[in-house]
Amino acid sequence: MEARTSALQREIQQTKPFQTLGQEALLGLLRTTDIVQRRLAKIMAPAGITQQQYNVLRILRGAGADGLPTLAIADRMVERTPGVTRLIDRLAAKDLVTRTRATDDRRRVDCCITEGGLAVLASLDDTLGAFDGEVLGMLEADEQLKLIELLDRVRQGLTPT
Amino acid sequence: MEARTSALQREIQQTKPFQTLGQEALLGLLRTTDIVQRRLAKIMAPAGITQQQYNVLRILRGAGADGLPTLAIADRMVERTPGVTRLIDRLAAKDLVTRTRATDDRRRVDCCITEGGLAVLASLDDTLGAFDGEVLGMLEADEQLKLIELLDRVRQGLTPT
DNA sequence: CTCTTTTACTTGACGCGACAACTATTGCCC
DNA sequence: GGGCAATAGTTGTCGCGTCAAGTAAAAGAG
Questions:
Q1: pLDDT at B160 over 70
Q2: Which helix (H) or strand (E) holds A112?
Q3: pLDDT tens profile B67-95
Q4: Predicted structure pTM score
Q5: C-alpha angle with apex A103: A97 to A109, nearest 5 degrees?
Q6: What is the rounded end-to-end Cα distance, in angstroms, of chain B?
Q7: Which residue of A has its CA nearest to B15?
């Protein structure tokens, strides 16, 4: 491998060069996402919700009027149950979702987004739309496709375990 | 843009297709990193440290015997001070780092990695090396470079704010 | 028709990140 | 050299993730 100037290396003030490309790619991935997440957090903050709460609201909006049981939400988030329970505790406290014990199976708790929840989502649509335009604005359409494909492949090599 | 089958869409059981490529790329980025982080957490767990603690230890190892003041560590982590203080509280509790009030400027607290800390890092080297090989194993060298480049560009378009 | 297992959550304890407010020094200005 | 700002950290509160344990209801086994 020939010498390359690494943008990442400058960014993290690292003196030693990366030993492998894989190392650099991995760190680049972690760092890029970190930056994106901080921006997302700032976008959500005015609406009084966090990224995870937004995620849950989106899932519930998609689920429609019937709502979804807690575990089904957790499934779609790759997330452990305890977290989701408490996440929804807080959303319920803000009246953005309702929880009702299912009558046909009393173990289940169906969660449903409220009008207020829908309004919060709506209030974020524009800003978020603009944001993902901004994030990927640096890349041409074919590059965006390439990025999507590369990330897909990385995940495929990783999903087990 | 012609119709594409989206791997991501299947993964998150989403019924509606993505409205823009940017949206899909962004979500792919978040999701890929999420998976990587979970794997990393599992690798670190046996050593009794978290990713952030590992990060701090790496930085201190690079800093050598003189150590680094708390804020300098925070700098290299893109992280807020309060977090770092408490992070180091826990590392110090495990005797992986020492903290000494600097004599020439009594506001400063210099942090230094201990033998124990170095041993913990050493115990993780192999597994981590294998891991980044695995993560990027799906990609050819030129694809890894492409990924690195695309991520660099995304960060560049984002760094302000 | 009980007894055990599985399923669907809930609760508790701990580590981490974020913001805000506070303390302790040092440096600077005049 | 007395006062004020900047610097370096610490502490408190809150949301979130993780694991481990516990509860409650439904399903299956004999």
A1: no
A2: strand A109-113
A3: 999 999 998 887 788 889 999 999 999 99
A4: 0.90
A5: 35
A6: 32
A7: A62
Show the tokens assigned to A23. 């190392």
User: Which residues 57-76 on B are within 7 A of strand D at the CB atom?
Assistant: 69-72
Q: Say whether the CB atom of B33 is under 7 angstroms from strand D.
A: no
Question: Which of B35, B42, B76 is opposite residue A13, by nearest beta carbon?
Answer: B76
* Measured CA distances, A90 to B56, B91, B111 (Å): 32, 32, 38
| Cα-trace Rg, chain B | 20
∠ CA B25-B27-B31 to the nearest 5 degrees?
Answer: 120
Of B23, B132, B146, the CB nearest to A146: B146
CA-closest candidate to residue B119, choices B94, B84, B101, B87: B94
Q: Do A155 and B7 touch (CB under 8 A)?
A: yes
Cα separation of the two ends of chain A: 31
Q: What stretches in chain A show pLDDT beneath 70?
A: 1-4, 13, 15, 159-161
With CB atoms and an 8 Å threshold, state whether A28 touches B143.
no
